[in-house]
Amino acid sequence: MESTLQGKKIAFVVAPEGVEQVELTEPWRTVQEAGGTPHLVSTRRGDIQAFHHLDRADTFPVDETVETADVAEYDGLVLPGGVANPDYLRMDERAVAFVRSFFDAGKPVAVICHGPWTLIEADVVRDRVMTSWPSLRTDLRNAGATWVDEQVRVCDHGPNKLISSRMPDDLKAFDEALLTEFAK
C-alpha cells in the first residue's frame, strides 16, 4: 500500500468495552500500512476489551484518554462501532466533547456501524448525508441527517469530511474512502 498517510496521526476513539474488533483492527491496519500512526484513545487508561458481536475477543492497550488527548495532535478521527461501544461513549461528556472537537477543527472523521450514536450526541450530524447500521436510520433522521443505504458515503457538506459506513461487510469500501480522504 502506498504511504499516503506518512506522518499523520489518527485517533481511534473507543469505550473500555464493546468495540467491534474488526471495525477497530481493519481500519487500524489500513492506517499503518499507509504510513500513518493510529492512536487508541479511550475514557480510561489500561486495556480496552473488543468483541466479536456479543463474544469477548482481544484486548488492546490505550495510548491516551479523552481527558488528556489534544485534537491538535491528530490529523483525523475513526469511530468504530459495536453496539455497546458508542452507547457508552455518548454518555461520557469528555468523549463527546473530544469527538466534537474534530468537527470544530475541520478535521476528517470516519464512522462505521453504530458509531454515529456518538456523533448524534455531539450534535454534529445535522444537514449531513450519511449511512450507518440500518437500525440507526431513524436516530440519524431525527438528529437532522439524511440517511442513505450505501456501503460508504463521503459527505463534504459541513465543517469537515465525514466518512460513514454501514457494517463490517463494508470495511473494504470504508477503508478505501478513509485512506483517500485522510490523505488530503
From TrEMBL:
Domain of life: Bacteria
InterPro entries on file: C56_PfpI-like, Class_I_gatase-like, DJ-1/PfpI
Keyword Ribonucleoprotein appears in the UniProt entry: no
PROSITE patterns linked: PEPTIDASE_C56_PFPI
Alphabetic keyword roster: Glutamine amidotransferase, Transferase
GO molecular function per UniProt: transferase activity
Claim: Transferase is one of the keywords in the record: yes
Sequence intervals crossing the membrane: none
Domain DJ-1/PfpI residues, every copy: 8-180
UniProt record similarity statement: Belongs to the peptidase C56 family.
PANTHER family assigned to the protein according to its UniProt record, in alphabetical order: DJ-1 PROTEIN, PROTEINASE
Name the record gives this protein: Glutamine amidotransferase
Record organism: Wenjunlia vitaminophila
